[in-house]
TrEMBL record:
Residues 1-56, 290-335 are annotated as: Disordered. It comes from Cryomyces antarcticus. The lineage of its organism: Eukaryota, Fungi, Dikarya, Ascomycota, Pezizomycotina. Residues 295-306 have a biased composition (Basic and acidic residues). InterPro entries: MAGE, MAGE_WH1, MAGE_WH2, MHD_dom. Residues 58-118 form the MAGE domain. Pfam families: MAGE. Residues 316-335 have a biased composition (Acidic residues). This is MAGE domain-containing protein.
């Protein structure tokens, strides 16, 4: 019986059909590649190889910065650059300016506030000034911010510069605001620094030398410690001639939130409203007293540290004389 052999499919036909079948697949792959690159362009848009976040990521970082600013101000905690980098920017530290500027727009438009950088703490003691001179990389900015109002004057109270923090009652908050504004006014009107003994004497005249109406801070010492912790005032200790000298100065938050403008508003509210001549005399005395602080602040960076004694001794003597005259005038008015 003859053998029947099956014919094999021509090899040449398979070879000819293979390229025809593969051509659409390669064409499809070429058509699918552009959407992937488009997606990458949306996520990371740059021209030099550095990745930048998309619009969605930028919006989220802006929201996080606004939340952080409001939360810090509610607790009267400075908004520090390090916290912004860790809690907001994450792996995008180069986006600080873009996120900060957009957050400022949101705060102004929605909340009537903006972030203001706190000034640097002044070098007041001899040791601090010597350390600043030895430091090769002294920082020129504080890298810390607080919220201040941007509302027009007719929509805000004279002494209100920030939203109320976490307190037990509005009455307690009002008492705290009044007390730290009063202490800051005493310091600025005394030439920028006030000995602790004189501050105690002034607090005694207002019946606040031992107890205060602020909830949770009924002791005056504890309240002053809170003012220092929140940056309203600074307690300076310095040894001069073997004797420890304790003074109070205005802190970074106190200079921004109250400052000379707030002190002027307090003085006008208490002593203003008289005759035209009395008001003019009040303005002259107020400008003279606050002008001493401005001149000292401008001259402080150029002043060289002394080997002995306390800085600006002559100015302190003048401030003491002015305080004594003010007390004498108050006593005459009481009589």
């Amino acid at each position: 019986m003859p053998l029947i052999r099956k014919r094999r499919a021509p090899v040449a036909d398979d070879d000819e059909e293979a390229p025809v079948a593969s051509t659409p697949q390669s064409t499809q792959r070429r058509h699918r590649s552009p959407p992937a690159s488009d997606h990458e362009d949306e996520e990371y848009t740059n021209g030099g190889g550095d990745a930048t976040p998309s619009d969605a990521n930028l919006d989220q970082m802006v929201k996080n910065m606004v939340r952080l600013a409001l939360a810090c101000e509610y607790a009267r905690i400075p908004i520090r650059r390090a916290d912004i980098g860790a809690k907001v920017l994450g792996k995008n530290p180069r986006q600080f300016k873009a996120v900060f500027d957009e957050a400022q727009l949101q705060l102004r438009a929605r909340f009537g506030m903006e972030m203001v950088e706190l000034p640097m703490k002044e070098k007041v003691t001899v040791a601090q000034r010597r350390a600043a001179q030895k430091s090769e990389k002294a920082s020129t900015t504080s890298k810390a911010y607080i919220l201040t109002t941007t509302l027009p004057a007719k929509f805000r109270l004279p002494l209100t510069a920030s939203p109320p923090p976490a307190t037990t009652s509005s009455t307690s908050e009002a008492a705290y605001t009044a007390l730290y504004t009063f202490v800051i006014a005493l310091i600025l009107l005394s030439g920028g620094s006030l000995p602790a003994a004189k501050l105690d004497r002034y607090l005694k005249r207002t019946n606040a030398d031992e107890h205060t109406p602020v909830d949770g801070f009924e002791k005056t010492e504890k309240l002053l410690a809170r003012m220092g912790r929140e940056g309203y005032v600074i307690k300076v200790r310095e040894n001069a001639g073997g004797e420890e000298m304790v003074e109070w100065m205005v802190g970074p938050r106190g200079r921004v939130e109250v400052g000379e403008q707030g002190v002027g508003g307090l003085v006008r509210a208490v002593y203003g409203g008289g005759e035209e001549g009395d008001v003019a005399d009040l303005e002259k005395r107020l400008q003279r007293s606050l002008g001493v602080v401005s001149e000292q602040r401008r001259a402080a960076p150029a002043e060289a540290p002394r080997k002995r004694g306390r800085p600006r001794k002559e100015t302190e003597d003048e401030a003491d004389e002015r305080l004594e005259r003010s007390e004498d005038e108050d006593d005459d008015d009481d009589d």
